[in-house]
Every structure is written in structure tokens, then in C-alpha cells.
Design a protein that fits this description.
It is built from 3 helices and 10 strands, in the order βαββββαβαββββ. It is mostly beta strands.
């Protein structure tokens, strides 16, 4: 797949579609040492915070990837063509605690351009992020109490903001000049 470097200010995405309809893969850790994990995500956002382009992701403390998000300074978020749906379903239904779940897919982890967390050869969009903020979701702050129904086990997410430091993607993600 031919990916080009995309300026964060020229990224062309439909954020709600990207997070809600096109399964994304979050990866954190160190590709060079092989110490990393990935998980599918469906909640998050892309925008501007503190005058910086950012991606926001959430990870429950019960997830294996949580420790990687805590222990490492960066992460990647990747989108894939629909033909990789089966691989993403596999990654979303297994835990890295049980072994190398990536080995059960046709996806290949590769070095990222800027961050230590891996990218994936088959991705049509990879956003590399440097963590700049994290906080735990506080249910006492829910203005709409129905949000709490997403947490039957009271395992509230930790929110991570990552400053976008590099983007690689196909031309469909590059804004037309």
C-alpha cells in the first residue's frame, strides 16, 4: 500500500466514521525490542487541544494494553482497509496476556517514523502520537447519568491525549490542496 506523509492540518477524515464504523487499532510499546501490544478501539477523537493537533483514546485498566500505555511515552492509531476486518476482529477478541495475538493475523508490525510504538504495513492510515496528558474518567462528573451504563463493572477508562507527531496514509486521507 502506498502511504504518503500527511501534515496533521491537512488530514481529511470523518472522525465519527473512523472511530465508530471503521475499527481502529491502538498500539503502544517498543517495536525495536518487540515489547508492544495492540488492541482494537472504537472510542476516541481527533482535534486540537492546547494549540496542538491531537488524538484522544481511552483504555480500561483491565486491558492488557493499559500497562503499555502507562509505561511508554507514545502510541499509534491505525486504520485498515475493510479486507482486514477479520484480523481486527481477531485482535479485538483476544488478550495479549494469552500470547502473541498478532501472530494469528495477516498483519505485520513495522517501525514507525517518529515514535517507538509500532505501525502496521497493511494500514491505510497511521497516526503517531506522543502522550501529553492522561486522566481517569470520574463517574461523579457524568452530567448525563446514562453514560454510567457503559460501565457495569465500574472499570472506568483512562483518557490519553497524544500530540500528533506524524501521519502516514493513502491519498484519500490527504486534504485536496
Amino acid at each position: 500500500m502506498q502511504n504518503i506523509q500527511i501534515n496533521p492540518y491537512e488530514l481529511n477524515v470523518q472522525p465519527h466514521h473512523l472511530f465508530d464504523r471503521q475499527t481502529l487499532l491502538l498500539a503502544a510499546g517498543d517495536f525495536a525490542s518487540g515489547d508492544f501490544n495492540e488492541m482494537t478501539i472504537g472510542w476516541g477523537s481527533i482535534g486540537t487541544m492546547w494549540n496542538r493537533p491531537f488524538v484522544e483514546v481511552v483504555v480500561r485498566p483491565t486491558r492488557f494494553t493499559y500497562d503499555y500505555m502507562e509505561d511508554y511515552d507514545d502510541f499509534t492509531v491505525s486504520a485498515f482497509p475493510s479486507k482486514y476486518r477479520r484480523a481486527l476482529t481477531h485482535l479485538g477478541s483476544r488478550s495479549g496476556r494469552d500470547g502473541n495475538k498478532l501472530a494469528g493475523t495477516d498483519l505485520t508490525a513495522i517501525a514507525s517514523r517518529v515514535v517507538s510504538s509500532p505501525s502496521f504495513e497493511q494500514a491505510e492510515l497511521t497516526i503517531e502520537c506522543r502522550k501529553i496528558y492522561s486522566a481517569d474518567i470520574d463517574p461523579a462528573k457524568f452530567i448525563d447519568p446514562s453514560i454510567d451504563t457503559n460501565y457495569p463493572n465500574k472499570d472506568y477508562h483512562r483518557v490519553y491525549f497524544g500530540e500528533i507527531v506524524a501521519i502516514l496514509g493513502t491519498e484519500k486521507f490527504a486534504a485536496l490542496g
